[in-house]
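Key result, reporting period 2: structure in, sequence out.
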């Protein structure tokens, strides 16, 4: 029997211990439930690695604004990287947008990111976090209930809103690489009954990456407004943001050798810029949404929501480096000159709810609704230039000349309108059952380079079932089954049909597990999931990106959070997964493992709160990601990696002001490693990063 590498054996032991601890502690929690009249335990300070939430059919993890500040999160991945099943899928060093995988599946940029549970945002620019109260990871049933979405999960951003207490705060965040961002947070409620509320967030400053000569800026302006009465609630959301910074070159994989395998280059210097300071990612994004809810009485309520998300990229120099000599590093750099990229998502949703309570033990809520989504992409045709460059000792390249004359566009537009209903029943306050149907009507129009337009339609009836059963006050079982349509992705820039948007395909998700909670902040989960979806790959010969069979994902997830001592909090999470490709017509991928999918991943975080210095907290953690295949043909792997981080936080009050300081160091040992392998490219991980954040807020 072949021995596993030491790192993998240790990680497997860690996951096994986590799973066993979750089950054992869950059973113990059922007996340790706090008595109804017992005093509540003091709530600990939030950890930077939250456990999954209990309750409901969906698997949901929420990262609060306090937790994001505690970890000095610079982007969405920093905020949610300790959530089981989340991995990075970014082949650029500090790229211009968030690229994430959940449960082995890459989130689509048009449907995988939501604003306040509604508007699907265009994710072609890094999502700002200064105006976010929470970042939520919704998996399984929590994702597919939105219609066309990834069966693995979605990211939901919850905006900050006004509270009854006035909010006035200024913040500063920075890194050892020169980033310095200032922000202002103002919130007020007013009116005779404080029925009106407004929250304003402004942020901006220098935002260089760790890449030398990779300077830049980013900015944000956001406002939320609310009007609330006894029967009605109206909500308005607005945010606008922009970036302008140098974007690092993507490192492509070489062609396979005579033995059919791909040899990886030795690790490049992550600080070295492979192009020039002209290689900029410039763009602006805007999200605007409005929602109204009205209670008609007698258990009947109606709501309506509309929104629009825009992303404009007036200029972007996308550079890729490939066909290089493994010894000397000499190769070819290709720069795609992108002009006037415009993405627009629009969203409308209208629904009615009917709530009834039958004599005592039965509660019922029926929801019927209509949703419409539209996704527009103008898809400009782009020119390219090539250079000779050196991977291990790069030289500054001269700025390319953008082509003159009119831009040719090949628009790719799609839309869907859905009718849906769902019903949720609670029996004896212990058994919660929910189910529903969604009729999805999808259509797309893609203009072809050869002339003409390709029109396609898809009609799909998507069922969903789920339930939870509370065995005790602190121990419950849950399960869900959902079928829906899943976006199969946009062709990568290095494919023959770059930027082509493939039609959605059917996806099925099943999940079952146990959840528990107990005294002193104890939470534990253990679940098993299966996902079957279409597999989109780039053909090695034709270079065309298309659907090629299916993928199946089977895995266990577990989380554990507990106060292991009076001032110590332990948080753990892990995933063990088996993923397989199925393609009867392509022997090069049939039975292989999908790219960038680790078999095992997990994290541990330990936090300590000082008794002698109230408000002072130290925390440290390790994160493990197993080896991953570099392409669908399994022609090479990037090694497993274990990284560590440490942090310190201090929270105090001085002269009527709340002052919070957080210092974090990620990749403490400055490991050099490949962080991802997607679409024929290799992601180079960030080096050791020291981040500081300071917030000063006026006390009410």
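The corresponding designed sequence is given below.
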């Amino acid at each position: 029997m072949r021995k596993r590498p030491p790192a993998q054996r240790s990680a497997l032991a860690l996951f096994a211990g986590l799973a066993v601890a979750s089950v054992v502690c869950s059973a113990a929690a059922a007996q340790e439930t706090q008595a109804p009249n017992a005093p509540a335990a003091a709530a600990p300070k939030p950890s930077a690695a939250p456990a999954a939430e209990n309750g409901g059919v969906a698997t949901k993890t929420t990262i609060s604004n306090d937790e994001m500040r505690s970890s000095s999160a610079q982007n969405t991945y920093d905020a949610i990287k300790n959530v089981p099943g989340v991995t990075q899928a970014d082949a650029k060093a500090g790229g211009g947008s968030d690229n994430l995988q959940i449960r082995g599946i890459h989130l689509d940029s048009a449907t995988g990111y939501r604003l306040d549970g509604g508007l699907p945002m265009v994710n072609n620019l890094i999502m700002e976090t200064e105006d976010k109260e929470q970042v939520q990871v919704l998996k399984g049933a929590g994702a597919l209930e939105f219609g066309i979405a990834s069966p693995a999960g979605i990211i939901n951003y919850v905006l900050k809103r006004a509270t009854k207490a006035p909010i006035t705060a200024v913040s500063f965040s920075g890194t050892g690489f020169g980033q310095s961002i200032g922000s202002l947070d103002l919130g007020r409620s007013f009116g005779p009954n404080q029925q009106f509320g407004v929250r304003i967030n402004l942020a901006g400053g220098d935002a260089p990456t760790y890449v030398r000569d990779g300077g830049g800026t980013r900015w944000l302006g956001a406002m939320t407004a609310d009007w609330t009465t006894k029967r009605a609630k109206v909500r308005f959301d607005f945010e606008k943001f922009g970036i302008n910074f140098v974007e690092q070159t993507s490192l492509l994989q070489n062609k396979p050798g005579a033995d059919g395998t791909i040899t990886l280059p030795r690790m490049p210097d992550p600080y070295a810029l492979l192009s020039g300071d002209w290689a900029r990612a410039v763009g602006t994004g805007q999200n605007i949404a409005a929602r109204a809810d009205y209670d008609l009485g007698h258990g009947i309520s109606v709501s309506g929501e509309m929104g629009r998300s825009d992303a404009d990229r007036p200029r972007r120099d996308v550079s890729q480096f490939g066909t290089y000599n493994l010894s000397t590093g000499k190769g070819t750099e290709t720069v795609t000159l992108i002009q006037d990229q415009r993405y627009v998502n629009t969203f409308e949703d209208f629904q009615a709810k009917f709530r009834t309570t039958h004599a005592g033990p039965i509660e019922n809520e029926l929801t019927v609704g209509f949703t419409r989504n539209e996704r527009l992409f103008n898809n400009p045709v782009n020119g390219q230039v090539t250079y000779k460059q050196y991977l291990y000792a790069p030289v500054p390249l001269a700025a390319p000349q953008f082509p003159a004359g009119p831009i040719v566009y090949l628009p790719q537009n799609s839309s869907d309108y859905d009718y849906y209903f769902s019903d949720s029943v609670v029996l004896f306050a212990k058994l919660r059952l929910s189910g529903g149907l969604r009729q999805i009507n999808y259509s797309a129009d893609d203009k072809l380079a050869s002339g003409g337009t390709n029109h396609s339609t898809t009609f799909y009836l998507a069922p969903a079932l789920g339930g939870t059963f509370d065995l005790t006050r602190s121990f419950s079982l849950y399960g869900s089954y959902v079928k829906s349509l899943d976006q199969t992705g946009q062709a990568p820039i290095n494919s023959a049909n770059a930027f082509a948007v493939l039609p959605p395909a059917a996806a099925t998700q099943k999940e079952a597990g146990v959840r528990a909670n107990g005294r002193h902040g104890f939470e534990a989960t253990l679940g098993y999931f299966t996902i079957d979806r279409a597999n989109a790959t780039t053909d090695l010969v034709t270079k065309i990106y298309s659907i090629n069979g299916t993928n199946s994902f089977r895995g266990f997830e577990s989380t554990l959070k507990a106060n292991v001592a009076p001032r110590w909090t332990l948080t753990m999470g892990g995933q063990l997964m088996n993923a397989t490709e199925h393609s009867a017509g392509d022997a090069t991928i049939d039975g292989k493992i999908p790219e960038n999918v680790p078999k095992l991943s997990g994290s541990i975080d330990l936090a300590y709160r000082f008794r002698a210095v109230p408000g002072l907290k130290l925390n440290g953690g390790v994160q493990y990601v197993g080896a991953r295949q570099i392409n669908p043909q399994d022609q090479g792997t990037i090694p497993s990696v274990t990284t560590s981080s440490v942090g310190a936080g201090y929270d105090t009050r001085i002269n009527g002001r709340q002052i919070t300081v957080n210092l974090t160091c990620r990749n403490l040992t400055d490991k050099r490693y490949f962080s991802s392998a997607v679409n024929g490219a290799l992601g180079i991980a960030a080096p050791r990063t020291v981040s500081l954040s300071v917030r000063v807020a006026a006390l009410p």
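Confidence is low (pLDDT under 50) at residues 1-49. Residues 6-34+59-698 form a domain with the Maltoporin; Chain A fold (CATH 2.40.170.20). This case is discussed further under Risks and Mitigation.
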